[in-house]
Structures are given as C-alpha cells and as structure tokens.
Amino acid sequence: MIHPRLSVSALSSFRWSFDEDLALWRDLGIGWAGLIAAKLGGDVESGLARLNDAGIRIATVIAGGFDLRRPASWDAARAALHPLIDAVAAHGGWSVYITPGRTTGAPWRDVLETFAAAVAPSVAHARSQGVRLAIEPSLRTDVSFVNTVRDAIDVCERTGIMAVIDFGNCWMERDFREVVARAAPCTALVQVGDAPIGSAGGPGQPPPGGRVPFGEGDLPVARMLTDVRDSGYAGPIELELPGPLGETEGYAPVIRRGVEKASALLYELGF
C-alpha cells in the first residue's frame, strides 16, 4: 500500500498532459498529487473534480507569480491567482504555491518590501479560503530572489506567506535540521527528491546538483526526512522528480520506482 501522505508532483512528468498524469496517479494508487495550473488549462474546475472523483487530494497547485519589476501587472496576476485559490479551497486542497519573482536589482530587504506589497492581498485571500499560499525558495535566480530556507523564513515572517521546502533546492544548507525546525510554523509543503553530489554527469545524466530518481542519488534522504518528521510537519510529502532521466528513460518507470522507494522509506521512518 502506498504511504497515505505521499504525493507526486506533475513536474515529474512535465511534458505530459493532465490526462496522462491522472491515469498514472490512479494506477499508482496515490492519495495526493501536486498539479501545475498551466496543465489544467481554462477548465480548472473540471480537472480538480476529476482528481476528486479519483480519490486523490490536492497537495498543491503551482501557479503564476508576480513580476516584481512591473507593479502595473500585479492586479492581473491576482486576477489569475485568486480564482485558482478559490477552486482549490472548494475541493479541500492543501496549498497553492508560486515562485517569489526575480530581484529588481535593489537591496534584498527592499525587494522583500516590494514582494510584500505585491502579495499581501493574495495572502489575505488565501487565508480567508483556508488555503496555504506559499513560495518556493529556489536556486534559480531567474524566478526567485529567495534562494535559501533561511531567507524564506524571513519572507514568511514579514508577509504571512508560507514556504515550500524542496530537498533539491536546500539539501546543501548548513544546519539543515535546525533550519527545518525553525521553518516548521510556516512550512506549507515538503518536496523530496534526490541528486548527485560529486559524480560527473555523462551523456543523458544530470550534472552534480541536478536531479535523479528518488533513492538513486547521493543525498542523505533518510536523515533529511527524519529531520522533517521531527520538526512536526504533518502535511503531504511530495515526490518531485524532474530531470533528464525522466525525459530519456520515460516518466512512468522513473516515477514508479520513486513512489515505491519513497513510500517504503516513509513507513520505515514512522511517518
């Protein structure tokens, strides 16, 4: 039996349609899934209803964020984000998350104040609907001025938004256990994956720091999950498996292996 807290992110099958994702998820027997809003197209309600009919809960939906360099665009961003939050709430979903947006070039604290102004109405709206609105700190500077969990905690405390802890973005942070514990009150979602640390990437293989199927890289995933467990986080644990092996070997076998290994480890660690 698949662990009841395990979710699979649609990023793991990035080029698939929602229909293809849903077919695999049903076959796997998972209880949670992470969606990409763009895959749902213009009929979000229908997609969420079909997920509900399959007995799969919404762990998260990845949505569009804010261009911090263009305040005139923020109303349009909210107009797209708020109905999605409403739909997720209507189907008992757990969270919605965005990337924080690239820097404006101003000092970091000034960029944070710009982000706070952009996101404040959406944070309030999500809270009123009972949905966790979150940001994902990312090593990708083209989409995020928030690059560490430490920085994300500062953003959460300033804005009231929550955070996604993605092993692929934060495994190298110092004092991981202490940081995860400190972030616990503002953690909306935990995403797990694996990566090579020192091995050289060959043809079709990810470089050091890239992504590989869960349990097939160098990350101390058992230790990191133990730290998450001990932090008190009680939400879904989402498997996110982007990377070249899914593109070359095929999404389904990579996801199946990851689900089996992650589910077994969650049971072993007492989640």
Q: Give a short account of the largest sheet.
A: 8 strands, parallel, barrel
Structural category is alpha/beta
**Can you tell me the number of structural domains?**
1
Number of helical runs?
11
What general outline do the C-alpha atoms trace? globular
Q: Can you say what the CATH homologous superfamily is? A: Divalent-metal-dependent TIM barrel enzymes
- Give the second-level CATH assignment, the architecture: Alpha-Beta Barrel
| Average pLDDT, all residues | 94
What is the name of the CATH class? Alpha Beta
Q: How would you write the strand order of the largest sheet? A: 1-2-3-4-5-6-7-8
Report the portion of residues in β strands: 5-15%
Percent of residues in helices comes to 40-55%
Looking at the structure, the CATH topology is: TIM Barrel
- The H/E string reads EHEHHEHEHEHEHHEHEHH
Short description:
The chain has helices at residues 18-28, 37-40, 44-53, 74-90, 108-129, 149-159, 167-170, 176-183, 221-231, 244-249, 251-268; strands spanning 6-9, 32-36, 57-62, 95-98, 132-135, 162-166, 187-192, 237-239. The chain has 271 residues and is an alpha/beta fold. The chain has a single domain (6-268), classed as TIM Barrel, CATH 3.20.20.150.
Task: Give an account of the 3D structure.
The protein is of the alpha/beta class and about 270 residues long. It has a single domain (about 5-270), classed as Alpha-Beta Barrel (TIM Barrel). It contains 11 helices and 8 strands. An 8-stranded parallel beta barrel has the order 1-2-3-4-5-6-7-8, surrounded by 6 helices. Helix 4 packs parallel to helix 5, helix 6 (about 150-160) runs parallel beside helix 8 (about 175-185) and helix 8 (about 175-185) runs parallel beside helix 9. The mean pLDDT is about 95.
